[in-house]
């Protein structure tokens, strides 16, 4: 097998994986921000947000890895949010692109 052929096959597999991971992320975004919006909005309300996002956290990093912040199950009582975060992180890992490190 020539080197060029191997590179083309690798690039095609990489593109297919990138596409699959992107579709998974878009599907999860659609679920959380559209299909499940009433539930998502309730979880993000002032009354409930503290149960899902630590005061030092954000939506994408709800329980930041800092001293004193307990690491909670991101899917607990909001499975679609956990699936969204997992899809987001999988695509970031695949692309070796981590916005928190920019």
Molecular structure report:
By secondary structure, the protein is mainly α. The chain has one domain (3-101). The protein has helices at residues 3-35, 37-44, 49-52, 79-95. The termini are far apart.
Based on the model shown, name its key terms.
single chain, 102 residues, mainly alpha, 4 helices
Strand content: under 5%
Helicity range: 55-70%
Shape: flat
Q: Please give the domain count.
A: 1
Mean pLDDT value: 88
Largest sheet: none
Cα end-to-end separation: 38 Å
Runs in which pLDDT lies below 50 for 5 or more consecutive residues are none
Put simply, the count of helices is: 4
What is the rounded Rg? 17 Å
Structural class: mainly alpha
Number of strands: 0
Write down the secondary-structure element order. Answer: HHHH
């Amino acid at each position: 097998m020539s080197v060029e052929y191997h590179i083309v096959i690798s690039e095609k597999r990489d593109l297919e994986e990138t596409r699959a991971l992107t579709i998974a992320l878009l599907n999860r975004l659609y679920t959380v921000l559209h299909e499940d919006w009433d539930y998502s909005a309730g979880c993000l309300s002032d009354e409930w947000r503290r149960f899902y996002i630590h005061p030092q956290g954000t939506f994408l990093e709800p329980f930041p890895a800092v001293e004193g912040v307990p690491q909670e199950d991101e899917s607990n009582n909001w499975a679609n949010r956990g699936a969204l975060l997992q899809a987001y992180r999988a695509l970031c890992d695949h692309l070796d692109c981590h916005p928190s490190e920019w």
